[in-house]
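Q: Predict the bound structure with iron/sulfur cluster.
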Amino acid sequence: MAGLYIHIPFCRDACTYCDFHFSISLKHLEPMMEAIGKEIEQEKDFLEGEELATIYLGGGTPSLLKPKELDRLFNTIKRYFSVIQEAEITLEANPDDLTPGYLKSLRQIGINRLSIGIQSFFDEDLEIMNRRHNSVQSKSCLEQANKSGFSNISLDLIYGLPGMSNEKWKKNLNTAMDFKPAHMSAYHLGYESGTVLDYRLRKGKVQQVDEDTSIEHFNILVEGMEDKGYLHYEISNFALPGLISRHNAGYWKGEKYLGVGPSAHSFDGRTRRWNMSKNSSYIKGMEKGNIVYEKEILDNKTRLHDYLITSLRTMWGIDMDYLREEWGTEYHEHINKQSVPYINRGKIRKANGKLFLTREGMLIVDHIIQEIFL
Ligand SMILES: C[S@@+](CC[C@H](N)C(=O)[O-])C[C@H]1O[C@@H](n2cnc3c(N)ncnc32)[C@H](O)[C@@H]1O
Ligand code: SF4
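A: Predicted complex:
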């Protein structure tokens, strides 16, 4: 079974922290949807006949698509792929788009999971982020989505925002929990290069939270979520039992996926490729039937690196027996040896032949992966 990711590269406004690929000019929306349809047709054999178990519309802002546009997109998908009956079909949505009428249409189209970018329940935070919605909409969209019959809802929150106290972060989390979402993704604010927030930081107009606050926010998050019965299955992701994001779990478990649309990534078990980002060039390319992408055939070492990165971030951990079978005793011994200092310092835990990050280890995951891999 495989996954399909569709990147919708448009947003109504730019959030101050975001460096995902999107354009705020919607004038190419129609030709873009044509081009995406063409890419779906052209790549119908990429998954070698595997059925789709998950479809994920991400962005950008997929919720700016009209029901008619979504309907057309799903018709195209179904024409070229077979989708299993109980497929997980997710749409990333911005709160201000989720009117009762729109939610009803989404259900009719077959979308059965929403990932809603709440980010915060406080107006002053939403202003710093230049979000289009306000704190009232943060709550009302969740109420409306529940009322419309969506039972599988994920929400995104951001912590470590400038000036965010522990108390405020706790309040945000508790408000989120009041809605009993099936799933939650919570990210520490990143100052990505080229974003407005990064510019403000360099000009001294905003201040990053200090390291202690970052750690405290993470601890509040993990303890708060676990107390409420959520499974901490990936560093930034939590789910009620049985409600892990099947699409994202596919990425982390190395399953095949096709990504269509500008900047989308694909993986067929042997090669990884990523589409060009520029919207106008992507559209022009698709008009001639050319998808412009870069491609990397994964050698043994890159596959190991990918396996370490993805498995260590999750509750499934690094399976040392699997590592030996796939990459041989030399790599097995190397990783075993490299992990010892981290086990001694309480950053990695070893159990049942697997390596897992401890909560402390999660805070330095990038460093650990680099060190144990080298
Ligand atoms: C690409 S966005 C798409 C979701 C949707 N467009 C929205 O904004 O609601 C996915 C999520 O990544 C997170 N994110 C993006 N940039 C981030 C950053 N610099 N720091 C922390 N979280 C970030 C946000 O929580 C966001 O909801
Ligand atoms: S966070 Fe979402 S809405 Fe904001 S710019 Fe990024 S993709 Fe667009």
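A: The chain has 14 helices and 15 strands.
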